[in-house]
Known about the structure:
Helices cover 80% and strands 0% of the residues. The chain is mainly α.
Amino acid sequence: MEQFIIPAVIGLVGVVAGALITNWFQHKKVKSDIELNDAEINEKIRVTCVGLIEPLSKKIAALEVELQDWKDCADARAEQLRKVNIIPVPFKSSKKSKGIDA
C-alpha cells in the first residue's frame, strides 16, 4: 500500500501546482483584458467629450464676437446721446450673468 501513496501524493502535488499555475495565468489574462476594456471605454468617452466640446467652443467664440459687436454698438449710441447732452442710462448686469468670469 505504501508503494502507491508516494506516487499518489506526488501526482496530487503536481495536479495542484498545475492548477495554481493555470489559475495564475488565467488571472493575468483576465486582468489584462479588463484593463484593455477600461482603456477602450476611456478612449470612447474622451472622443465623445471632445466631440461635444468642440462645437460648443466654436459657438462660444462666435457669441463672444457678437457680444463685442453689441458692446461697440451700445458705446456708439451712448456717445451719440452724449453729443446731444443726453446722459445714457448706465448698464446693469442681469442676475444670470453675475458670477461668470469672462
